[in-house]
Amino acid sequence: MERLTVHVDEKPAYDIVLAEDYEGLGKEIEDIGLGGKRFCIVTDTNVGIHYIEKIRTILEPRSRSVITFQFKAGEENKNLDVVKSLYETLIVGDFERGDVLVALGGGVVGDLTGFAAATYLRGIDFIQLPTSLLAMVDSSIGGKTGVDFSQYKNMVGAFHMPRLVYANVKTLDTLPDKELISGMGEIIKHGLIKDRAYLEWIEDNARNIRTRETSILIEMIKRSCEIKRGVVEKDPLEKGERALLNFGHTIGHAIEKTLNFKYLHGECVAFGMIFAGKLSAMKGLIGEDDYALICDVISRFPFPDLPEELDIFKVIKATKKDKKMSEGKIKFILLKSVGDAYIDKKITDEDMRLAMEAVYEELE
Ligand SMILES: NC(=O)c1ccc[n+]([C@@H]2O[C@H](COP(=O)([O-])OP(=O)(O)OC[C@H]3O[C@@H](n4cnc5c(N)ncnc54)[C@H](O)[C@@H]3O)[C@@H](O)[C@H]2O)c1
Ligand SMILES: [Zn+2]
Predict the structure, then answer these.
(1) Is 335 a pocket residue for ligand 1 (Cβ < 6 Å)?
(2) d(Cα 35, Cα 46) in Å, to the nearest integer?
């Protein structure tokens, strides 16, 4: 079992526990004083079938009551209608201020549950039981919660810290391959923005990661959690440093939208990192050999090929819609070196176009 403590305002706020089963979960819940509460396990249809009964069995002897709320899997259900029916379930279940929501699932479940917890009765406790790779290293940490609103992603939300993040890495056994690889997009990003040695470790261990060797996965998830923790501790409310996590995301998000969500988020982040890496090289910040390293690490995982049909002008236009702009300027994340990212507010459309064209030219 591995444990990391996340601090908010320099005070310990919650632990991230990485385990190979759920055996330790009951004790963790008691240790943070949540024994004897009402619990509502929130999950989606893909995750619920595998794990909801296990979690119920663990919670029941330690609680006043356990209810469940399951919704259909998919980003399209991360919305206020589902939150509304969750509120209704909580009201019918007599949930009070001291009661607890349990987010059992990927980032969709985590974000939606966290948002309901942030708003129900002006805020109740919740714990995160992330089951996707992305949720374990990214969305379950840092307290960003929210839902989509019509076509706008994460438009409505709140900062609300979980009381505990408990990741049973064995749940990754049932995660579809494509989702695992998508999660690798964010993990490769962690190496690129903060830790070159970690990036090289990922490159060396790619095969064992792909075959989901438990000890390797735990080592990797732990390092990525440390990196994400380091960033959110320095900038809990996303005013500065946290923007570094957006490496590969400005163009990545724009591709995601332009191609109508044909590719998974982490797949688009991988595309975006190739372009941002190329741009860093074209600006003379990193060498062409560093750019080759980025491409090599990504190529060790079965990400899709760069889309042939990409309309670069449309993608650049879509970057203007990025929520993470500051006074109308894009906060583009570039690499000073591999393992050291910074925020650049001077990147022009022309810069983006030239980098994207250069990447495509090299493919020919
Ligand atoms: N709050 C944050 O800081 C933050 C950060 C990054 C992403 N996000 C959000 O996270 C979401 C993406 O998260 P995601 O990639 O986990 O998506 P997801 O929750 O949709 O999970 C991906 C798919 O895998 C399934 N799944 C998850 N765990 C499984 C398991 N163990 N076995 C079988 N199937 C499983 C899900 O049902 C779903 O079909 C997006 O909505 C994004 O906005 C939030
Ligand atoms: Zn992301």
Answers:
(1) no
(2) 28
CA of 99 to the centre of ligand 1 (A): 24
Q: Taking the CA atoms of the chain, what radius of gyration do you get in angstroms? A: 20
Provide the token pair at 74.
């998919």
Tens-place pLDDT, residues 135-191 = 999 999 999 999 999 988 899 999 999 999 999 999 999 999 999 999 999 999 999
Residue 301: which pLDDT band, with cuts at 50, 70 and 90?
very high
Mutate to test the pocket of ligand 1, among 54, 179, 227, 322 (most ligand atoms within 8 A of CB): 179
Q: What topology does CATH give the domain 178-363?
A: Dehydroquinate synthase-like, alpha domain (1.20.1090)
Residue 107 has pLDDT above 80, yes or no: yes
C-alpha of residue 124 to centroid of ligand 1, in Å:
22
- Please write the tens of the pLDDT for every residue from 210-248: 999 999 999 999 999 999 999 999 998 888 889 999 999
**Is residue 14's pLDDT more than 80?**
yes
Top CATH class of 2-174 equals: alpha beta
Distance (angstroms) between ligand 1 centre and the Cα of 131 equals: 8
Instruction: Give the pLDDT score at 363.
Output: 87
Query: Among 219, 156, 223, which residue's Cα sits nearest to residue 186?
Result: 223
Kindly report the protein residue whose alpha carbon is nearest to atom 37 of ligand 1.
46
What residues does CATH 1.20.1090.10 cover in the chain? 178-363
Looking at residue 40, its pLDDT comes to 98
DSSP string over 186-244: HHHHHHHHH-HHHHHHHHHTHHHHHTT-HHHHHHHHHHHHHHHHHHHHH-TTSSSGGGG
Ligand nearest to the CA of 183: 1
Tokens of 225: 């959690």
Intervals of CATH 3.40.50.1970 along the chain: 2-174
